[in-house]
Amino acid sequence: MKKTTVCINNSILQNSPLDDISTEQLWNAAQIHIVKQGDFLLRAGQTCQHIWLLEKGACRAFYDHHTREINTAFFFESDFITNMKSLRNQDPSGYHLQANTRSVLLRWHKDTLAGLYKLSPAIAAFGRERLELLAIAGETHADWLKTHTPEERYQYILQHQPELIQRVSITQLSSYIGISRETLSRIRRRVL
User: Fold this and answer.
1) Cβ of 159: how many Cβ atoms within 10 Å?
2) Model pTM?
């Protein structure tokens, strides 16, 4: 657990409102969750009960559309993962959360977090900030799909999110960009 805490402290706690006591309370309440590639954190139709923090590995959010998977988000080290709408409203999830690789995560049950939020205003502020960032990322991706051409989207990923090119299959990347695999291959040939 010490290695996990050190890794997380270095990456996400630098500008957080957490003091040492709140940090220790938060990490002590977490469960270590190890999943294999292809394991689901959450399936469509299930109600989300957890928030995860990815320490090592990669995960994705996707939904099934007829016979295709549509990827809407990718998560890497130090990213928080949840389905906010399902977690908050206790509605069935409309999409899946799945491990893209063997992954090590910290996991908090929603009831555990609710107790921590009551115990520590600093943890509540930290949690609220992280959930807001997740919501902003989702909204940004939706806007990005509406306002940029496929080639502009691919150029953006090359410049600002190169880990997607390195860590995500071309099939998953093409659905994330909102195009077919064949169209992405043509764009890649033109760009390279």
Assistant:
1) 8
2) 0.89
